[in-house]
Amino acid sequence: MKKNILGVVLAGAVLLAGTAFAGPQMTFGPNNEGTLQLDYKGQFQGMLRDTGSGATKDSNTADLNFRRNRLALMGSYGEIVSMYVQTEFLEKQNITPLTVVDGDASSDFSILDAQMRFEFHKTFNVYVGKLKYNLSRENLEACEAPLTLDRSLFVRAPFVTTRDKGVAVWGNLFNDVFQYRLDAMNGRSASGSDTPESNFRYSARGHITLLDPENSYGYKGTYLGKKKVLTVGGAYQWENKVAYSDTVAKTGAVNYKGWTTDLFFEYPVADLGTVTFSGAYENIDLGGAYKGVNPDAGTMGLTGEKNGWYMKGAYMLPSIPLQIFGRYEKWKLAALNLNNSGVATDTIYDQRIDWYGVGANYYFSGQNMKLTVEYAKTEFDKKNATTKNFGTFITQLQMIF
Amino acid sequence: MSEKMIKKSRVLIAALLGTVMIAALTLWGCGGSGGTSSYSDPTASITTTKTASALIEASTLKQWVDEGKVNSTDPANLDKVVIVTVVAATNYASLHIPGSQLLNYSTELAITRMDGVATNTSEVPTGPLMDAMVQRFGITKNTTVVLTVSKGQSLMNTTRAYYTFRYWGFPKERLKILNGGDDAWNDAATAEGWGSAYALTATVPSIAASTFSVRSFYNGSTANFDSRYSIGQMLTLVDNINLNNIKIDTTGVSIIDARGGTNATKIQNAIMDDYAKYWTAATGKTGIMNSQSAQIAYLTAEGVTAAKTMNYVYCASGHRASVPYFVLDGMLNWPVTLYDGSSQQWGSYVSTATLNKVATAWQTDVVTPGTTINRTFNISGVVPIVAGTSVTLDAASNAMFTSITDSRANQQLNEDRAYFTSGSAVTTPSTGGGTPGGC
Questions:
Q1: Which of A172, A186, A220, B142 could form a disulfide with A145 if both were Cys (CB 3.0 to 4.6 A apart)?
Q2: Residue B127 to residues B133, B413, B428: CA-CA distances in angstroms?
Q3: How many whole angstroms separate alpha carbon B319 and alpha carbon B275?
Q4: H or E element that contains B391
């Protein structure tokens, strides 16, 4: 009887796997050379963390919330010109990567992407507007197609989110084996007297991609066994005079320099399934501003001065769309303070974090409909009243429509 | 080159590059301390007040005064020094070292708290009381505290304060005792002609309170509370020694009775000691601590050496015992724990008490179960043992806690540990745990 139930579930899953979703698309122009498509992208999560609630903050915290909740408008006119606009609407989340805060009190609507794209030739493309900057592969990977439940929690650059406003030039050379990317972005927005100077942030990134090429602006965390990929990349990013080490005396202006190397490998083998491996190292240097008398808060913490690496691996079964994955991250943060109230003396210097998680993706319909579960442990080398090890269990349903 | 050849070449290069990258990542992951670069703690290198032991001379304190460290409000000078005079208010009001502040020995270092099945009248201050004290002094996490006493007062006042600060998590390198107190300061100032700016004064300094909390010392460990033993822990220790589960030989533990003078009883297995033997005092003046080598010789003669795994000190009320506590912890760096209830509590938990009589399990003048050895040694031989009067029985606890190992009966540890680990309440900008961010 149990076998029959399992058979029905699997049969249903396989049937669903054949279904394809696509957002409404319209064409326009004298010769229908214009297209416009509207997509919805949602990731709804149930999260359980074994800390964060109760009088001593040691009780479990449960949260149901959107991780991503987006409308995307994509259009093109002819061969060269296209656009991409994406909105995001999120209610404040209780459970953040390293802390638990009061949630639902506010919401946040934003234009996540707003890009004017000019694809003149495969060797020369220009993107203008609000888009992902060209540092880490991880940040450039599509968030709807990560290998694990989400991407690394630690790779983000300082003083910006995952996007920035600016101009990017990129292209593929040598039969798509080499890809270059150059961008000039806003970097840290000049915020009154907090910023020493208002300078642009520049990035240069390149990769060598072998087997089946990765030749788009965005990467994916997995191609679900549809491609054989080996890509090795590296990037450098910098912005001068980005912050003060003494924000009171307005002294000790520091430069920002970040660099990374990364590797992605995916290889499907007939009847055996698909293996995927990905890893990267990243170093964010903010001139040691955290050691200052009154350092800029942005030079510390999760997006401040740090260095570390991650490794991810997965195996996708050949017969059913189930992918089992694991991820390990090891980071050193120059300074971290997890007191939600912000207590200077709770700052821990040279904090080392080990993050490891395991889980599985079940693809009902490729990335258009998938269910993911993941359990992760976050461990701190140094602890205090507000810095304690914790575990997080997340179930996520993703739909792209 | 044919399409097939190009593909084959790519596979070969792919394998090569993949091997190199995996090897590189492995090296990052496994090499050294995790393979990633380390960062320095800017607060770790600012301790310019490090000394060989926690006992300092007047000349050292003068140097810190001259360097502008005392009560410094310069935000760039994180290495601040606060001088605390541990005496009665009248002594402080009369004369003190310029810039020093009063810690009222009579009212602030010993309070009545629950321990075991009764209250005791001489216990450490609670966390909120301690926080109020350190904030009044303007103490921050990077402050070195120098403890002293008014002319002619006992150096024991400073050792009791030292124990209290250690109990609440202050690192050893941030606590100093001025050897000889204000007398030594005054004598040095006179002999060396320091000038009027260094003369003892009645002027009370105006200090801006800090927002520091002892809770900020919590770093995942509450080992600081191991510096104190409760009545339940002390009874368990004595029982274990009587049962031969814990040794008191050269590499075992010692129990040191620091009361001095003539005593009718002592805790079984205790070494009879005298707190006043650790210093030399001229008539009318505060004692000068004996040298480190002299302290070692004195303790060795008692059978206490560096080989001991732990030394448990007690006296009448936990104050005199703080003298050997300081010598062992601050001067010699030997292990030490202070039984805070001391003989006033031990002597009140007796079977002969008529008022506040504790349950049998908690009685100190009975034989250890399973042995014929009494928990108390009757020195005078006079019976019955006269019960002390420093405790007030809590009937509910006396009925509920039927075992001396019941962790609930260590109320101070439970209360203080909960406070210590509860996080600070002072607000300044956080460096953040991050938000999930976009895509």
A1: A220
A2: 10, 11, 21
A3: 10
A4: strand B391-393
Please tell me the pTM assigned to this model.
0.64
Asked if B200 contacts B185 with a C-beta cutoff of 8 angstroms, the reply is yes
Dmax (CA) of chain B: 110
- Give contacts of A 173-212 with B, CB under 8 A: 175, 177, 208, 210-211
Contacts of B25 in chain A (CB under 8 A): 263, 279, 281, 309, 311
Q: What are phi and psi of A387, to 5 degrees?
A: -115, 100
Q: How many CB pairs under 8 A join A and B?
A: 198
- pLDDT tens, position by position, A165-200: 999 999 999 999 999 999 999 999 776 778 899 999
The DSSP symbol for A346 reads: G
Q: What is the pLDDT of residue B129?
A: 96
Give the residue carrying structure tokens 């300081």: B326
Query: What SS3 class is residue A6?
Result: helix
Residue type, B370: G
Nearest CA in chain B to A110: B438
Burial track B249-276 (b if 16+ CB lie within 10 A, e otherwise): eeeebbbbbbbbeebebbbbbbbbbbbb
Q: What is the pLDDT of residues A247-291, one digit of tens each?
A: 877 888 999 999 999 999 999 998 899 999 999 999 999 999 998
Half-sphere exposure of A166 (CA within 13 A, CB side): 22
Longest Cα–Cα distance in chain A: 75
Task: Please judge whether A334 and B39 are an interchain contact, meaning their C-beta atoms are less than 8 angstroms apart.
Answer: yes
Q: Where are the beta strands (DSSP E) in A321-389?
A: 322-336, 348-365, 369-380
**What is the rounded distance in angstroms from the CA atom of residue A336 to the CA atom of residue A349?**
7
| Residue in chain A lying closest to B418 (CA) | A56
Closest CA to B276 of B301, B296, B258: B258
ipTM here? 0.73
The residue type at B304: V
Q: Which of A343, A356, A382, A398 to mutate to test the interface with B (most CBs of B within 10 A)?
A: A343
E strand or H helix at B22, and its extent? helix B3-30
pLDDT digits (tens, 9 = 90+) for B173-232: 899 999 999 999 999 999 999 999 999 999 999 999 988 899 888 877 899 999 999 999
The closest CB to that of B21, out of A163, A232, A293, belongs to A232
Whether the pLDDT of residue B438 is over 60: the answer is: no
Report the sign of the C-alpha dihedral through residues B67, B72, B77, B81, in that order: positive
- State whether A331 and B22 contact (CB < 8 Å): no
- For an interface test with A, give the residue of B20, B216, B439 to mutate (most A CBs within 10 A): B439
Could you report the per-residue pLDDT of A91-133, keeping only the tens digit for each?
Answer: 777 788 888 877 665 667 889 999 999 999 999 999 999 999 9
Q: How far is A266 from chain B (nearest CA, A)?
A: 11
3-state secondary structure of A136: coil
Q: Which residues in chain A (111-130) have CB-CB distances under 8 A to chain B?
A: 112
Place of tokens 């600060």: B165
List CB contacts of A383: < 8 A, sequence separation 6 or more: A389, B219, B220
